[in-house]
Amino acid sequence: MSAANARRRDPLYPIFAGISIVVLLWVVAPLIVTFFSAFSATTNASFPPEGFSLRWFRNVFEIDEFKTPFYRSIALAVISGFCAMTLGTLSALALTKYRFRGSEAIDALLMSPLIVPQVIIGLSFLIFVSRMQFTGKFTVLVVLHCVLTLPYAVRVIRASLTRVGRSLEEAAIGLGASPVKAFFLVTLPQIKAGIFAASFFCFVISFDNFTATAFLSQSNSTLPVEIYFYIETRVDPTISAIAALMMLGTTTFVLLIDRMVGVNRIT
Amino acid sequence: MTQRIRAFLLVSPAMLLLVVFFAALTTVLSMSVRNTAGDFTFANYIRFASDAHFLGYLWRSIRVACYVTLVALIAGYPIAYVMSRGSRRFASIITLALAIQFFSIYVIKMYGWMLMLGNNGVINRFLKFIGLTDAPVRLMYNELGVAIGLFASALPLMVFPISSVLQNVSSRYEEAANGLGATPLQAFFRITLPLSAPGVVGGAVLSYVFCFTAYLTPSLLGGSIFKMIGNLIYDQAMVGFNYGLAGTAAVVTLLMSLLVVFGINSLGGRLLPGGTR
Amino acid sequence: MKQISMIKIAAKTAICAVVAGLLGGALPAHAQEKPLVFMTWGGVWQKTFTELAKEYEAKTKQPVTVIAQGAGEAGVARLIAQKANPEIDIWSTNMVNYERAKKEGVIAAIDKAAIPNIAMINKSLVFSHGVTGWVSLRGIFYRKDLVPFEPKKWEDLWDPRLKGKMAAPAASFDPGYFPTMAALLSGGNEKNLAPGFAKLKQLRPSVVTFYTNNVQSIRLLEAGEVGLIAWGILPNVISYIKPGSNYGFVVPEKPLLVAETPITLVANNPRQKQAEKFLDFLLSESSQNVMAEAFGAMPANNKAKGPEVVQTILKNLDNSYPMDYGHMAANMSEIISQYDREVIQ
Predict the structure, then answer these.
(1) Is the pTM here over 0.90, yes or no?
(2) Does the CB of B143 have a partner CB in chain C at under 8 Å?
(3) Protein fold of A64-266
(4) Which residue of B189, C47, C297, C303 is 20 to 30 Å from C200, comparing CA positions?
């Protein structure tokens, strides 16, 4: 029976579909509201917007305060994403290829940043850094973001490795390739999608991170932290304009990923 | 080289990174057992445990995390179901909508909620417009606003794990059940739901921990009237300059989170035959 | 194979990104003189000081970089972390963090002889480890069309006609001042806040909500959710106070609580001499006028005038209450806990 037929005969499907639409409309509504409030002609960020104007969008590009944080966020996300992806791939390899005692414990340790609350991670880094009298700010942020994104990288690549299986790699080794060569020539291309997905995840999680980062670096900081403090001090719809632009960016990003890899595969 | 050594070599870089992480965590622990003079003492913990005000933070956070996670499960399971069983197009739209919402910058999501929930926000103006209410309904700066904001952010955390497990639960099992005489509802409750248990457990854990330790949402939407344990940690560390008390609250929060994670994991393993692995 | 070259390209790009990032973070500013670093708050403060720095550089060839600090004690935390090897030379902060920094030994004692412009500063505004750069006024911010009468004194907040019409500050908003005001009205002070908390408990039924930052308070008034903000910071709302405007700001004088904003010199600093010269520049009449005008504050320099709006709101600081900030700083944790406990809940 085809999937479509299965759907038609499933009484739960329409109910669930209805619930899904309602719930999703509810959670997407604030994004839509924010998007349109950016077009307001007055300083009142409201919905529906009062008048129509693009002045707040213009204002965004004239704000100095966001330029450096924006680049910092990008650099941070790229560097820590790359590191997390590398470390994550190595760890995922170890966990899937080899059966050894303590693998459960290692797995739990690798996942632990997900369970430790953001507030606590931020606080602990803050205290640690001030205790150690260490002032390489960007380096600390990179370490923090690596820690935060590592579990995601491990998870995604592990899932990818499990799906791919070892048979091809073992065949290559059987034909005379060294394990390292076999990995690079056989396994790596197979988990290409997974690596791509992991990098994407890590990039977004790092770029988006607020709480832990805010504890560490309230100034000379990343874009989300800067936006938060901007919200705290300005009353105009510039923030709506920023939000609208970011949403366009996120949407483009997600659509691109969907086109290339399929969002279903990474969520 | 034995398997074990190879494996350890591979994980060692990640472990090194996590060593920094755990070292940082221990400084919090060490600050929590010190007073302002620097001597070793459990005074902070005693104070925290005996002060109804501080315990109130804990209780509020547990309570909100519990019911928001529950609502996220009830609202999110159908979404995961549709994502894995729906037609290509429909499932894609749903997935994209949720993904865009999930990947939006957190601060901006909350800002959007502020525009929706304020006394002059979208919802209140709509209610007034259709004549349902006269005076604005207080949707923000209270527990309701915080819960709504938390729900919106917890939903994707609940849906994605469930959907990824459901995608692997082939609908053939249900077909087989149908063939053997089960009604679709029976098939769902007896087969699909239990098999999706690992996803439910994963989603519940992520959602709960997120809500329990939230800081930004209660800060922006709770108006200082509804504060959660994350706010206590922040206030005491950044305004009160009291790392000892902040550290204590942090350690307690961490222990409670771990407890709940293990709890949900084992509960899931016992109630639903699908198991948690 | 195609996939391998793709991976190679990805790896090369990533390495370039790493190098670029490290370089970007590590490259020092290329200047003839090493710039002095001045840490202040972001926004209008950073902007204004950046312009003053340009003026200073034109005069003295000494470049000054102005960086931003976060709210709360983020600035102090940073200085403490850099204690052994400070990267910051001059720092503007609030009185509570000043006391904390003094206690931690990260700011230097002021050598009056090295800063001649101190002579023009009001004696009460010169401290052992810092000099006030500007005075930020506190008071009641309200909308004339939303209150039954225009408040004039602090006691007016407890007027039954204002029931359900006001918002009050959260514990973390300008911490310590609001309960001190209430305490001073009821026979206590900043060291004995109990009467203040009792009095604020009586105020609670009048309070609709609490605000944690300035924008929130402004929005509450703009949206008409409340008619009055019980504790407002004048510099943050000064653009709303114009003749003929719907908004009013009153600085009650019994007690008169003001927030001095000290500028300090970081301790253990080999460039203290250069920092002292820049501090002297900031205390000069012209700089003071620029700062006061930009911030909507009262200048510290006796000769400087300050913006007209501020002058109409408060004539002088003669009756300002001398707050024991040291005590407040040491007990801040307890103060905010108690405020949460007794006033809000």
Answers:
(1) no
(2) no
(3) MetI-like fold (1.10.3720)
(4) C297
